[in-house]
Structure formats: structure tokens, C-alpha cells
């Protein structure tokens, strides 16, 4: 049986990008038969509680698989990589007591890593209480630093000292960024020395040429960003995207601004891109100020969603817990912050700003062909350069900028971000995460229908090498057909420039039309949004009442 997760590596990404998904086929019967993908063949297999693999305790993994699972997904240095590879080559095949066939060797090769990191024993024993103590001490020490101390250098050094044995350098930088205020204070009129105007413009052209595919990658990337519970809370607190209608307005506005950054010159004062950049930076400052003025109890109360819209939460959790890796102690230090609100640090920090950049570029550079983006490495590097510039203008410091370095650097940073943090997050998806993402997708239907919440999750799972059999089997035929039509476009039709142009134009026309909605149209959308949430909450209430009656009868 195929392993349920294959951690991303540069080699795996390149191999996946070189392949295409088989064309959709249908049967001659009157009603189409929903084809079972490889994901769906394991739908009825129950998962272990915390193994990260389906049937992992049922002798479904060979000895080689188990040995592979116990290796670290982190390469500390090229020397350690060579040493680990040599150890793997020296390993003799063991007897297969489970009766697996010759395919076990192939499966072992596919699964290059584990459901948990191999960490030093002293980290293995780290408890939440110990982690809380470390984070409290870190915050207190940082606040007491003398003015003459380089706070950024100190933060990086201290974070590396605490978590250097479990996190890679790119993630240590992001973690250190959570201690630093999210706005660098640098004037937008001051151009950085590293800026290459020609490369910046090339990245803008690339973004316009593949606008539809990039927009879809950004859409499903929101689910990864929302998986960070503390990062999601500021969005909930602002109350500007907690319903389909408010999400429609918020992300339509965001889309228009990003579009201006691709079509105008943000480095020239007075342009539309410059004005939009300045407006976003000012909004971020206002949100920071608002959060800082809020007490911890008030903040916690304002960032909870009562009766969250999450009808598939249980199904998705079960799938994610079957296919996503469980974190090692100290691997996801931010998780304890949700349990201990007093650890709340700076909001919209440099670390959170860098994580937001990830949503705009991560999947695009990781597997561009999955989104119908057929471009050279030079184009992708230019796209990263464009977003490095955008990040700079939004107040992200160079040392925390997600898009700094080469294309290979950004790819590896993305792989680390997903493997070490995003996948473990998925195991504990919150009702608020599903609620907010559903609002985004439903709001998109108001002017550009096509995707659904379920199909977005399935596409995200595919690009991350995750298996979602329960969610897949729960699809209606209509959703299944829609999902395969979308995949058909990205896998085949997007190869033709005429098709890309058509989809780009359709998206732009839809955005422009939505911008011109009159008050009557907007009011009708608001009513539609309110009715949808009210209907779901009524069903929840009916279920609660039915459960109460059942409980009384039992007693």
C-alpha cells in the first residue's frame, strides 16, 4: 500500500512538475460514474490515532519503510546528508514479516521521510510547560534589551539557541521575526540597493501572463495561512471577512490592489500601485495599533467565532490526521501560544508578514505546472524579485523578506515552511479556519463562480502530496465534475496561450463588474450571505435539540 504522505523535497517537486494528471474519462452510461482515484481506494481504512500513516500499526509498512520513517526530514548540512545517504546505502534489506511484495522497495523509495522529526533526546523530552517557560523568558529578555543592542541580531541568535536543533535556518529566521515589529519604518521613496528594475518588470509581466493560475494558487494558499491559529485571529478581530459578503468585499479589494502592483509602477510616487501600497501599509499599522490597545481577555473574546460554519471539519480532520506528520517537541513552538494567551507577542510582526508573502509566491514557485504555469526558472526568479520588492514597500525588512535569495532558496524555504509547520497544523484544523476559508470561497462565487471549498482543499492536498479519501468520497457528482474540469484546464488547456488569455480576460472582466455593483446588488448579496449562515446555524440548533432529547431518553 502506498504511504499516505510523501514529504516535499526539491527532487520530488521537480518530478511532480514534469508529470500530468490523466485526462478525465467518463462512462457511456446516462449518469457519469465518479472515478475513484488512488486517494479514494483507502477510504474505508481506519487510521492510527497519531501515526501519520494509515494502518501504520497493521504491518502495512515494511522494515525498510519503518527505517525510512525514522529518518529526519531536515538536512543539517551537506556533510550530514552525505553521511545519512551512506548509512542508507549500507543498510541490508530485512525480512518482510508482513508478507509485502516487491513493491515495498518502491514504496520505501517514494516515502523519503517520517511522520515525525528525528530530534535530539533532550528536545524529545520537552514539555509544553518547558516550552512556555522558554518563550516567556525569550519575550521578557527581548523587552529588557538596552537600546544599543542590535535587537534583530539578538533575536536570531537566541531563537537559534533555543530551536536550532529542530528547525532549519529559514524557519529560525521567520520565528525570530515574530519578535520584531512588522513595519521596518523605511520610506517607500527609498529604493533598496538590490532592486533590479528590469527584473521587477519582468516579474510583473509574468504575473499578468499567468494571472488566472497565480490567483488560484493564492486562493488555496490562504488555507495554509489560516492554519496558523494566532495568525488568523487578527483577521477575525477586524470583522471584515467573517461572512461570505464581507469576505467578498475584502478579497475583491485585495485582488484589485495586487492587480495594480502587477500593472503599475509601485516605485513611482502618484501611481495607482504606489497609492495602493501606501494604503495597505497604513491599514496594517491601524490593525497593529488596535490589537495593542486590546486586553488579552478582550482579544480572545473577539477572535472566537460562535457556531462556526464548518460542516466538513470532522471529515477533513480525520483525513489530515491520517496523512499529515505529527510534530516533534519544539517543532511548532507557536502552537502553545493558543493555549497560553499571555504569550501573545507582536501582531502583524515581521514573521507574520513573511508568512503572508508565502501565500503569494510559495505554491507558484514550488509546482508552477500544477497551476498551468509553464515558465522558465528565470521568470520564476523574476516573480520572486517582484514580491521581494512588494514586501520591501510593505515594510518587511530584508533579512526577514520571504523572497530574498535565489529561486532555489525560496523553493527550499517553501518546502521547510510546509513540511515543518503547515502539515502539522492541518492535524489540528480549527472551526474558525474552515469558517473563514469557506467565507472566502463563497464570497468568490458572487462574481467568479467555479471553485468550491471541497475542491480547493482537494487541489491543495494534491499539490502537497496529501491523501484525502474521505473528503474525496463525500463529493457530489456535480462537485466531482467541476473539480476535474478545473484540473483539465490546468493540466492541458493552459498550455495554449489563447486559453490563458481567455481565462485572464474573464477574471479581469468579472473583477471589474464586481467593482461596479450598485447598492441594490450589494444588498442582495448581503441578504444571501446572512441567510446562508443563518440556515447553517439553525441546523446546528436543531441538532443540539435532537441530541438533548436523545440524552434525556437515555437517562
UniProtKB/TrEMBL annotation:
**Domain of life, per lineage:** Eukaryota
Region ranges (Disordered)? 47-119
Ranges of compositional bias, category Basic and acidic residues:
76-94
Protein name (database record): ER-bound oxygenase mpaB/mpaB'/Rubber oxygenase catalytic domain-containing protein
What species is given as this protein's source?
Trichogramma kaykai
Amino acid at each position: 500500500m502506498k504511504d499516505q504522505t510523501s514529504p516535499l523535497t526539491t527532487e520530488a517537486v521537480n518530478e511532480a512538475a514534469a508529470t500530468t494528471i490523466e485526462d478525465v474519462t467518463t462512462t457511456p452510461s446516462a449518469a457519469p460514474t465518479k472515478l475513484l482515484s488512488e486517494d479514494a481506494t483507502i477510504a474505508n481504512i481506519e487510521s492510527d490515532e497519531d501515526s501519520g500513516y494509515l494502518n501504520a500499526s497493521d504491518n502495512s509498512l515494511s522494515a525498510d519503510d519503518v527505517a525510512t520513517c525514522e529518518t529526519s526530514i531536515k538536512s543539517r548540512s551537506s556533510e550530514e546528508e552525505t553521511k545519512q545517504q551512506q548509512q542508507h546505502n549500507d543498510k541490508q534489506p530485512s525480512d518482510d514479516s508482513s508478507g509485502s511484495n516487491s513493491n515495498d522497495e518502491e514504496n520505501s523509495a517514494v516515502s523519503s521521510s517520517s511522520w515525525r522529526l528525528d530530534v535530539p533526546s533532550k528536545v524529545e523530552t520537552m514539555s509544553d510547560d518547558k516550552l512556555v517557560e522558554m518563550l516567556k523568558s525569550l519575550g521578557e529578555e527581548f523587552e529588557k534589551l538596552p537600546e544599543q543592542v542590535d535587537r534583530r541580531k539578538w533575536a536570531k541568535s537566541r531563537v537559534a539557541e533555543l530551536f536550532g536543533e529542530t528547525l532549519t535556518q529559514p524557519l529560525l529566521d521567520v520565528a525570530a521575526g515574530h519578535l520584531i515589529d512588522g513595519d521596518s519604518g523605511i520610506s517607500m521613496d527609498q529604493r533598496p540597493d538590490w532592486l533590479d528594475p528590469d527584473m521587477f518588470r519582468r516579474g510583473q509581466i509574468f504575473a499578468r501572463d499567468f494571472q488566472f493560475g497565480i490567483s488560484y494558487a493564492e486562493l488555496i494558499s490562504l488555507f495554509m495561512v489560516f492554519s496558523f491559529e494566532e495568525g488568523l485571529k487578527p483577521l477575525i478581530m477586524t470583522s471584515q471577512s467573517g461572512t461570505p459578503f464581507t469576505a467578498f468585499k475584502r478579497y475583491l479589494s485585495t485582488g484589485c490592489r495586487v492587480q495594480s502592483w502587477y500593472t503599475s509602477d509601485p516605485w513611482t510616487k502618484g501611481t495607482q500601485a504606489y497609492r495602493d501600497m501606501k494604503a495597505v501599509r497604513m491599514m496594517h499599522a491601524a490593525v497593529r495599533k488596535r490589537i495593542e490597545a486590546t486586553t488579552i481577555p478582550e482579544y480572545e473574546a473577539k477572535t472566537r467565532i460562535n457556531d462556526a460554519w464548518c460542516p466538513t471539519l470532522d471529515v477533513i480532520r480525520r483525513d489530515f490526521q491520517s496523512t499529515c506528520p505529527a510534530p516533534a517537541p519544539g517543532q511548532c513552538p507557536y502552537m502553545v501560544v493558543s493555549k497560553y494567551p499571555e504569550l501573545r507577542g507582536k501582531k502583524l510582526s515581521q514573521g507574520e508578514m513573511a508568512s503572508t508573502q508565502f501565500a503569494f509566491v510559495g505554491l507558484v514557485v514550488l509546482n508552477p505546472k500544477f497551476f498551468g504555469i509553464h515558465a522558465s526558472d528565470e521568470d520564476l526568479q523574476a516573480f520572486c524579485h517582484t514580491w521581494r520588492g512588494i514586501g520591501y514597500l510593505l515594510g518587511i525588512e530584508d533579512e526577514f523578506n520571504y523572497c530574498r535569495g535565489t529561486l532555489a532558496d525560496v523553493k527550499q524555504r517553501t518546502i521547510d515552511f510546509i513540511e515543518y509547520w503547515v502539515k502539522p497544523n492541518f492535524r489540528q484544523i480549527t472551526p474558525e479556519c474552515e469558517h473563514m476559508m469557506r467565507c472566502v470561497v463563497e464570497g468568490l462565487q458572487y462574481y467568479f463562480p467555479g471553485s468550491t471549498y471541497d475542491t480547493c482543499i482537494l487541489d491543495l492536498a494534491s499539490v502537497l502530496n496529501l491523501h484525502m479519501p474521505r473528503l474525496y468520497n463525500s463529493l457530489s457528482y456535480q462537485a466531482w465534475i467541476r473539480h476535474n474540469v478545473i484540473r483539465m484546464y490546468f493540466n492541458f488547456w493552459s498550455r495554449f496561450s489563447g486559453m490563458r488569455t481567455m481565462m485572464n480576460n474573464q477574471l479581469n472582466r468579472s473583477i471589474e463588474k464586481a467593482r461596479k455593483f450598485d447598492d441594490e446588488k450589494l444588498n442582495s448579496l448581503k441578504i444571501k450571505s446572512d441567510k446562508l449562515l443563518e440556515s447553517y446555524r439553525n441546523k446546528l440548533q436543531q441538532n443540539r435539540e435532537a441530541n438533548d432529547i436523545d440524552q434525556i431518553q437515555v437517562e
